[in-house]
Task: structure prediction
Amino acid sequence: MQKTFSQIIGLPVVDEMTQTKVAMVYDIIVDPETGKVLAFAVDKNNIIVSMDVDRLNSALYISDKEHIIPIDDVLRVKNVREMRIWIIGEKVITRRGKLLLGTVTDYEIDTTQMAIKNIYVAKTFLLFHFSERIISIKDVVKIEKKSITVKDDKEAVLSEEAKATSRAMAV
Result:
Protein backbone atom coordinates (compact mmCIF):
# COMPACT_ATOMS: atom_id res chain seq x y z
CA MET A 1 0.00 0.00 0.00
CA GLN A 2 1.19 3.52 -0.75
CA LYS A 3 0.45 6.69 1.18
CA THR A 4 1.69 10.19 0.60
CA PHE A 5 3.35 12.44 3.14
CA SER A 6 0.29 14.70 3.07
CA GLN A 7 -1.99 11.74 3.84
CA ILE A 8 0.14 10.59 6.78
CA ILE A 9 0.78 13.90 8.57
CA GLY A 10 -1.94 14.44 11.15
CA LEU A 11 -2.97 10.78 11.32
CA PRO A 12 -3.81 9.52 14.80
CA VAL A 13 -1.43 7.06 16.44
CA VAL A 14 -3.51 4.25 17.92
CA ASP A 15 -2.48 1.79 20.64
CA GLU A 16 -3.88 -1.52 19.36
CA MET A 17 -4.10 -3.00 22.86
CA THR A 18 -6.46 -0.34 24.17
CA GLN A 19 -7.75 0.98 20.81
CA THR A 20 -7.11 4.52 22.03
CA LYS A 21 -5.48 7.46 20.31
CA VAL A 22 -2.15 8.13 22.02
CA ALA A 23 -0.62 10.75 19.70
CA MET A 24 -0.66 12.22 16.18
CA VAL A 25 1.91 11.97 13.40
CA TYR A 26 3.80 15.27 13.36
CA ASP A 27 6.56 14.49 10.82
CA ILE A 28 8.28 11.68 8.94
CA ILE A 29 12.03 11.21 9.34
CA VAL A 30 13.62 9.71 6.21
CA ASP A 31 17.20 8.52 5.88
CA PRO A 32 18.64 10.69 3.06
CA GLU A 33 21.15 7.98 2.10
CA THR A 34 18.65 5.14 1.64
CA GLY A 35 15.22 6.75 1.26
CA LYS A 36 13.92 4.53 4.07
CA VAL A 37 11.55 5.83 6.73
CA LEU A 38 13.46 5.78 10.00
CA ALA A 39 10.72 7.08 12.26
CA PHE A 40 7.50 8.98 12.64
CA ALA A 41 7.74 12.02 14.89
CA VAL A 42 4.77 12.52 17.19
CA ASP A 43 6.09 15.81 18.56
CA LYS A 44 9.41 17.66 18.57
CA ASN A 45 11.06 15.25 21.01
CA ASN A 46 9.36 11.86 20.61
CA ILE A 47 9.22 9.30 17.80
CA ILE A 48 7.99 5.88 16.80
CA VAL A 49 10.63 3.95 14.86
CA SER A 50 9.26 2.45 11.66
CA MET A 51 9.85 -1.14 12.76
CA ASP A 52 7.44 -0.57 15.68
CA VAL A 53 4.58 0.32 13.34
CA ASP A 54 2.12 -2.57 13.07
CA ARG A 55 0.16 -1.07 10.20
CA LEU A 56 -0.47 2.23 8.54
CA ASN A 57 -3.80 3.00 6.89
CA SER A 58 -6.47 5.30 8.34
CA ALA A 59 -4.25 5.57 11.42
CA LEU A 60 -0.74 4.58 12.47
CA TYR A 61 -1.14 1.51 14.68
CA ILE A 62 1.38 0.45 17.32
CA SER A 63 1.12 -2.52 19.66
CA ASP A 64 1.86 -0.49 22.79
CA LYS A 65 2.18 3.21 23.63
CA GLU A 66 5.59 2.34 25.11
CA HIS A 67 6.86 2.36 21.52
CA ILE A 68 6.76 6.16 21.66
CA ILE A 69 10.32 6.99 22.69
CA PRO A 70 12.52 10.09 22.96
CA ILE A 71 14.32 10.94 19.71
CA ASP A 72 17.63 10.95 21.61
CA ASP A 73 17.27 7.18 22.20
CA VAL A 74 17.97 6.37 18.54
CA LEU A 75 21.24 7.92 17.41
CA ARG A 76 20.68 7.57 13.62
CA VAL A 77 17.26 9.21 13.85
CA LYS A 78 18.66 12.02 16.00
CA ASN A 79 21.54 12.58 13.55
CA VAL A 80 19.24 12.67 10.51
CA ARG A 81 16.88 15.09 12.27
CA GLU A 82 19.84 17.37 13.10
CA MET A 83 20.80 17.44 9.38
CA ARG A 84 17.56 19.37 8.88
CA ILE A 85 16.85 17.82 5.49
CA TRP A 86 13.18 18.40 4.76
CA ILE A 87 12.10 16.60 1.63
CA ILE A 88 8.96 18.69 1.15
CA GLY A 89 9.91 22.01 -0.43
CA GLU A 90 13.42 20.93 -1.45
CA LYS A 91 14.61 21.93 -4.94
CA VAL A 92 14.93 19.09 -7.44
CA ILE A 93 17.77 19.40 -9.93
CA THR A 94 19.25 17.18 -12.62
CA ARG A 95 22.69 15.68 -12.17
CA ARG A 96 24.33 16.73 -15.43
CA GLY A 97 22.72 20.00 -16.39
CA LYS A 98 21.77 21.17 -12.91
CA LEU A 99 18.41 22.00 -14.49
CA LEU A 100 15.81 22.99 -11.91
CA LEU A 101 12.82 20.68 -12.30
CA GLY A 102 10.86 22.30 -9.46
CA THR A 103 10.33 21.63 -5.77
CA VAL A 104 8.99 18.59 -3.95
CA THR A 105 5.29 19.07 -3.25
CA ASP A 106 4.67 15.60 -1.79
CA TYR A 107 6.16 12.11 -1.71
CA GLU A 108 4.79 8.60 -1.66
CA ILE A 109 5.79 5.91 0.81
CA ASP A 110 5.44 2.18 0.31
CA THR A 111 3.98 1.28 3.70
CA THR A 112 5.13 -2.35 3.56
CA GLN A 113 8.76 -1.46 2.78
CA MET A 114 8.67 1.80 4.79
CA ALA A 115 10.57 3.56 2.01
CA ILE A 116 9.98 6.40 -0.40
CA LYS A 117 8.61 5.15 -3.72
CA ASN A 118 8.06 8.42 -5.65
CA ILE A 119 8.53 12.13 -5.18
CA TYR A 120 6.02 14.62 -6.59
CA VAL A 121 7.69 17.65 -8.14
CA ALA A 122 6.20 20.84 -9.55
CA LYS A 123 7.26 24.32 -10.46
CA THR A 124 5.22 26.87 -8.55
CA PHE A 125 4.26 30.45 -9.11
CA LEU A 126 2.34 32.06 -6.27
CA LEU A 127 -0.03 29.22 -5.34
CA PHE A 128 -0.20 27.61 -8.78
CA HIS A 129 1.57 24.36 -9.66
CA PHE A 130 2.70 23.65 -13.20
CA SER A 131 5.14 21.27 -14.92
CA GLU A 132 4.13 18.61 -12.42
CA ARG A 133 5.90 15.28 -12.57
CA ILE A 134 6.31 12.13 -10.52
CA ILE A 135 9.89 10.93 -10.13
CA SER A 136 10.67 7.39 -9.01
CA ILE A 137 13.06 7.02 -6.09
CA LYS A 138 15.16 4.88 -8.46
CA ASP A 139 15.96 8.08 -10.36
CA VAL A 140 17.11 9.96 -7.26
CA VAL A 141 20.88 10.26 -7.11
CA LYS A 142 21.27 12.18 -3.86
CA ILE A 143 19.16 13.81 -1.14
CA GLU A 144 20.93 16.75 0.49
CA LYS A 145 20.07 19.80 2.51
CA LYS A 146 18.48 22.32 0.13
CA SER A 147 18.32 20.01 -2.93
CA ILE A 148 17.53 16.59 -4.34
CA THR A 149 19.57 15.52 -7.36
CA VAL A 150 17.97 13.21 -9.91
CA LYS A 151 19.18 11.46 -13.03
CA ASP A 152 18.92 13.59 -16.13
CA ASP A 153 15.52 13.05 -17.71
CA LYS A 154 15.05 12.69 -21.45
CA GLU A 155 13.49 16.15 -21.80
CA ALA A 156 16.45 17.84 -20.14
CA VAL A 157 18.98 15.85 -22.16
CA LEU A 158 17.17 16.58 -25.44
CA SER A 159 16.86 20.24 -24.53
CA GLU A 160 20.60 20.53 -23.85
CA GLU A 161 21.45 18.65 -27.08
CA ALA A 162 19.14 20.94 -29.09
CA LYS A 163 20.85 24.02 -27.66
CA ALA A 164 24.30 22.58 -28.48
CA THR A 165 23.19 21.76 -32.02
CA SER A 166 21.78 25.25 -32.61
CA ARG A 167 25.00 26.81 -31.29
CA ALA A 168 27.07 24.58 -33.64
CA MET A 169 24.92 25.58 -36.62
CA ALA A 170 25.27 29.27 -35.77
CA VAL A 171 29.07 29.02 -35.97
Summary: Residues 31 and 80 are 7 Å apart (CA to CA).
